Each structure stands twice: as structure tokens, then as C-alpha cells.
Amino acid sequence: MSKRPNIVLVLADDMGFSDLGCYGGEISTPNLDSLARRGARFTQFYNTARCSPSRASLLTGLHPHQTGIGILTNNDLPRGYPGNLNLRCATLAEMLKAAGYATCLSGKWHLASEMHEPNDTWPTRRGFDRFFGTLTGCGSFYTPGTLTRGECDASAEALDPAFFYTDAIASHAAEFVTEQSAAGNPFFLYAAFTAPHWPLHAHPGDIDRYRGRFDEGWDVLREKRMKRLVEEGILTASTAISARDPTQPAWS
Q1: pLDDT averaged over every residue in the chain
Q2: What is the pLDDT of residue 1?
Q3: Can you tell me the distance from the alpha carbon of 226 to that of 242, in angstroms, rounded to the nearest whole number?
Q4: In this structure, are residues 70 and 81 in contact, taking their beta carbons and an 8 Å threshold?
Q5: Comparing C-alpha atoms, which of 2, 4, 7 is closest to residue 188?
Q6: Is pLDDT of 27 > 70?
Q7: Which of 128, 130, 127, 125 is nearest to 114 (CA)?
Q8: What is the per-residue burial (b if ≥16 Cβ within 10 Å, else e) of 209-247?
Q9: Is residue 51 flagged as an active site residue?
Q10: Of 51, 104, 172, 201, which is the active-site residue?
Q11: How many Å apart are CA 170 and CA 181, to the nearest integer?
């Protein structure tokens, strides 16, 4: 039997289509750019316009309305959706765990309406052996609400002055990969970052590095992004840029 591949699924929250460097963005993303240029860059992606439904589709392969999460994780019964990932669908983690994979979620879940008492919609009960992250949709990167390890409150970990949620997600994910690689186990890692979802917290050094980068404003920057998208081969040269959102004034 051929060796089972390890699978790493990385999700960035609310990121724009052209935000990464390899898609024309202004921020330096060299590691992601390297992976993209040695792999495949898709030119179309259909999301569901909201966070939770998109995650539900990504993890199950189903239309979000079939999963119980049609809008967000609010319980809108009896007239709306329950806001929970229902038991009529299987997650990628559940399928891979049944196939002998070690599974881990590091980061944001946002697929359960109950975020304080463990239940059948928590990641640890939907196929993930390990979970470190948040159940809620957004919050401070320094003191994230609903920070959980397994099924236990992990808010005390954020009391460390050096704690930063993006770094913590990456560190936990890297630990899992290192451990499973050493053990020789096939693994599935779902690294679901909250960034760049608001409140857009970042290290001071990272902010300083981009000081002045966006001063030209959206009118100029969007045209430059468009040019880079064409140069990268993501869009054809005949692609026309859309008009600026009429609700937004010209940059000056």
C-alpha cells in the first residue's frame, strides 16, 4: 500500500483574494509565496460570504445549509438554523481519524453555538484528537475569549506577557507536526488562524516594517495589485478592474 500523505490545511480568516504576496498584495509573505509558486494557485474560490458557513463547507464538503450553520453560530431555532455543526455530516477530521490519521486543530473553530460547555459540536468530538484554540468568532489576539485546550479553559495561558494568539496557534501546530513526524504517524493538521480578522492586532515591529507602505491609498494600491495579479498569471491581461465601491470616497 502506498504511503498515506500528511495533510496540512491552513485557513486565514477574512483575508482578501489579493492579500498574499503571490496574489499581488503589499505584505511580504515569502514562505507562502514559495509554496504557492512550487504548487498550484487557484484563480477562483467560492465562499459563503460569512465565516462559519465557509468553515462548515470546507470541513464537510457540503453546502452550509446542510450542516446546520446557514449564517453564523447563533441559535435561531425554531425559524432559523441551530448554529451548530449537526450530526448528519462528517468532518474531514472524522474521516481521516477513522483511516488511522492523528488529527489536530490549532486555532479557531466557530462551529458551535455553545462555547463554554463541551458538547457534540466541539472539535474534540468531531474528529480532532487535539485542540488548542478558540470556540468564538473573533477577539483580542492578546487575551482571546474562549481560549481552550482540549475541552478545558486555557485562558491562563494568555496571561504570559509574551502571548500572542497568532504565534500560539503556529507554535501548537508546529509541535503537533514534530511529534507525529517523529512517531511516524500520518497526520492531519487544521491550522485555523484568526488573523487577519479584526481587531487586526500585530506586533509593533511588524507594524513599523510597513509604515508608509499604504500611504498612496486604495485608489492607487488596487491598481497596482491588479497589475501584479496579471504579472503573476492569476488574471489575464484583458481583465478589467472593477469600479471603486461608490460608498467610499476617492483617496486624498
Answers
A1: 94
A2: 46
A3: 10
A4: yes
A5: 7
A6: yes
A7: 125
A8: eeeeeeeeeeeebbeebbebbeebebbeeeeeeeeeeee
A9: yes
A10: 51
A11: 16
With a pLDDT cut of 70, the percent of the chain lying above it is 99
Count the residues in the chain: 252
Q: Tell me how far apart the alpha carbons of residues 52 and 109 are, in angstroms, rounded to a whole number.
A: 8
Q: For cell 479553559, what's the residue?
A: 153
Residue 28 has pLDDT above 90, yes or no: yes
Residue 138 designated active-site? no
pLDDT 10s digits, 112-145: 999 999 999 999 999 999 999 999 999 999 999 9
- Residue among 152, 153, 129, 151 at smallest CA distance from 143: 153
Q: Which candidate in 89, 110, 197, 201 is catalytic? A: 110
Rounded CA-CA distance 52/65 in Å is 11
